[in-house]
Amino acid sequence: MAWLHTWLDQAHGPFTYLAILIAAALEGEIVFTSAAMLVSQGKLDALPTALAGAGGAALGDQVYFYLLRGRVDRWLHRIPTLADRGAKLAGRVRRAETITVLMLRFSPGLRIALAAACAYARVPALKFSLLNALTCLLWAGGLLAIVAWFGPAVLGRLGISGWWAALIPAALIVVIFTWIGRTDRR
Question: Please, how many CA atoms are within 13 Å of residue 143, restricted to the half-sphere of its CB?
Fold first, then answer.
């Protein structure tokens, strides 16, 4: 990912934000954290970066939901054991569909599975899209605030500045999201 950070650092104009959008749709935290580091250094604008990150995150989540909507049940019903487990899963998702959709963006390692579960449980498309877009905005805004402003401000008071002030919160976020993803998969 170092090549992407270097490319983002040297890129200018709307294609930079398009690259952030596409990368956030494909991957998520690492690319967006790199973009947030560049915001902290004044090399990228905060609002377009946040919107591109949120838009890409929503696009990535919703592609799976819409691709699998109406298809997962046909696949699962071919195998009776899976159909039984799928019915139990769908029941759980239906009982807590709002929470499930809201958790999706904050559950690295489970995003595709949660989107598939929502598609299988037939969560209403508009509800899924609106709730997911909201959480993607919260995710992008929160991540950007921590990496670009809050982390460097706190570290600056400790005498840590420059690249380190943005790198330390960014690295912590990547480590935390990786840890959460591994914990969620268990």
Answer: 34
Give the sign of the dihedral formed by CA 9, CA 15, CA 18, CA 22. Answer: negative
Write the single-letter amino acid at 67: L
| Range in 22-31, 66-75, 120-129, 165-174 with the lowest mean pLDDT | 165-174
- Locate 64 and state its tokens: 């799976």
CB of 54 closer than 8 Å to CB of 28: no
Q: What residues have CB less than 8 Å from 126, skipping those under 6 apart?
A: none
Q: What Rg value do the Cα atoms of the chain yield, rounded?
A: 18
CB-count exposure of residue 172 (10 Å: 0-12, 13-18, 19+): middle
Residues 60-94 have pLDDT tens digits of: 999 989 988 877 666 666 666 766 676 777 777 78
6-9 own/partner pairs: CB under 8 Å, 24+ apart: 8/34, 8/35, 8/38, 8/44, 9/38, 9/43
| Tokens 């029941």, located at residue | 91
Q: How far apart are CA 83 and CA 89, in angstroms?
A: 10
Confidence band of 108 (pLDDT split at 50, 70, 90): confident
